[in-house]
Amino acid sequence: MEASPLAEWARLLFGSLAQAGLRDVVISPGSRSTPWVWAALNTPELRCHSILDERSAAFFALGQARITGRPSLLLCTSGTAAAHYFPAIIEARLTSTPLLLLTADRPFELQAAKAPQTIDQVKLFGDNAEYFELGMPDPHPEALKFARRLAFQALTRSTEPGARPIHINARARKPLEPQSSPILAGQVSAILAKTPPEHAPSHLECKIPDSLLRHLHTARGLLFSGPENPAAAGYSELLLSLAERTGWPIVVDAASPLRFRGNHPGNATLLEWAEWFLPQLAEEMRPEVIVQFGSPLVSSAVQQCLGAWEDSIIYAVTDGAWCDPQNGSIQLPSRPAELLKALLSHAPEAPSPEAQGYARLLKEANQRAARAVNGVLKEEGDFSEAHAVASIARLLPQGSLLALGNSLPIRDFGSFVARTHAQVAVLSQRGANGIDGLISGAAGAAEASGKPTTLVLGDLSFVHDLGGLWCCQALATPFVVVVLDNAGGRIFEQLPIQRSMGMTPEKLQSWVLSHELRLEKAGEIFGLHTERVSEAAALEAALGRAHAHAGPSLIVVAVAPSGAQRTSRRVAERLSAERLNSEQLNAAGLSAERFRNDG
């Protein structure tokens, strides 16, 4: 009986993927995927990472890709295993992060027959992924050429601007274990010995509307620096140069690279406290033009300003995917660095007096907000999330990686953290903005970067991704998971649902999910260096030990359950008494009437 071609079929695929540029394979164990796992393990160019849970594995791969800019490949068995990839696939789709999936599948004769671990995997992820059917192994020469072509096609497609994750479905019939097939092995080796095909890289054509070029010289403008993947960043210096030459201030998001790049020597005006003062000045300080880089800003208050500025022109620099929550932005598909270089070639050498006055007024408002926040933090007696994130930001190691969890933590950084002195790369999952896989994604980023990494997330996000603690066990670099434990999802205490008619504290628990869990016990289960702290000095000491520890650590920071809500209210009350009046506007030559009627 002739040996099965399965082993050589899998070797050809993975050998071709490696030649196309694949370097990392994230494997979740299973039987039907055996030939593919064997091939990956025996392809020298590939690094294989074994992670038990598929959802954690998918976010781990996503974290790797956010750092490297190239796809990692997810590999799992048949059945429901692949379904656990779905949250990460959605996140990858919405952030244009490259990702490859190889799902092992049962042969056609077992479909729709109640065979074990057999589901319909064809287009399992709908429009969120691009689907390729590899089918059953086939030794025919044309089929071998197809398998090689598919490998190059999949990897190339995954890195194109605005690409979807690539899903390859590969069917296998028993026996699954490697078998010797000398003739086919020779054919596969001969194919892999050939020079790999070359593919011209795809790019986004940089076209700048004439209206934007004109506005560079005449308009009161704002630049928005939103969340950005570290692999896609690297244009901060160009953005600062544009801000200096136009005089346009930069609104700095909680997860903007500019918040964590240390002090900048130039004259650009950076507004990291915009969410505190911009809504107060939304009408008086309406800009004519906004150019947004990165994802939409985290701050809902600033986003509401965009919606109120109906007469402002908003340009959104995108990676090819449509970015327009306000339903009125002009889309600029382009790589940010290329666009900025083109804008700088048309920008004035120095800002106009009007632009300087506009920037000066916003800078003064930003300074007032900073004083209000710092004053409240110094006066407060309770140890809250605000004190915790301020301490964490101050103690980040130079050149490290910071991962910010969704829900309250990323908002706390936007509300209570000034620009850091340390130059730090920042990572966030702001595609679907969910709490899925936050530990796993940060662990993947830490593995790919090799940099000390600090993850800050909430207690419910932590419980939601306990499988991520498996992912970080093997890390050799400092990996610090800081959990802000406020005993539940306290963001809902700051949302309108709390004030809904008939709402009671008991009913609100369906959202908040208050708990008395000792979260540090989870760290002990997975063998992490673990501490629990409840005041600033202890947190700073614990961070020092964790950053010096070569491996994963867990710090559970117990804070007052509603502390962030109380701190925010105190800052808002302090600022409400310091609103700009018409005399201040006129002193700057920027009257409210002029702002309403001009432009």
Quick synopsis:
It is built from 23 helices and 18 strands. It has 599 residues and is of the alpha/beta class.
Rounded mean pLDDT score: 89
How far from one another are the termini? 82 Å
Low-confidence stretches: 588-599
Instruction: Tell me roughly what share of residues is in helical segments.
Output: 40-55%
Please describe what this structure looks like.
This protein has 599 residues and is of the alpha/beta class. The strands form three sheets. Strands 2-1-3-4-6-5 form a six-stranded parallel beta sheet, with helices on both faces. Helix 14 links the parallel strand 13 (401-404) and strand 14. The longest helix has 27 residues, at 353-379. It is globular.
Pick out its properties.
40% helix; 15% strand; six-stranded parallel sheet; alpha/beta; disordered C terminus; 599 residues
Strand and helix layout:
Elements (H helix, E strand, L loop, with lengths): L5 H15 L3 E4 L6 H8 L5 E4 L3 H15 L4 E4 L9 H10 L4 E6 L24 E6 L5 H18 L7 E6 L10 H12 L16 H9 L2 E5 L10 H11 L3 E3 L17 E2 L2 H4 L11 E5 L6 H9 L4 E6 L11 E4 L2 H9 L8 H27 L5 H10 L6 E4 L3 H9 L8 E4 L9 H12 L3 E6 H6 L3 H4 L7 E7 L19 H8 L7 H6 L3 E5 L2 H12 L4 E7 L4 H14 L5 H6 L4 H6 L2
Helix pairs in contact: 1-2, 1-5, 1-6, 3-4, 3-15, 8-11, 12-21, 13-14, 13-20
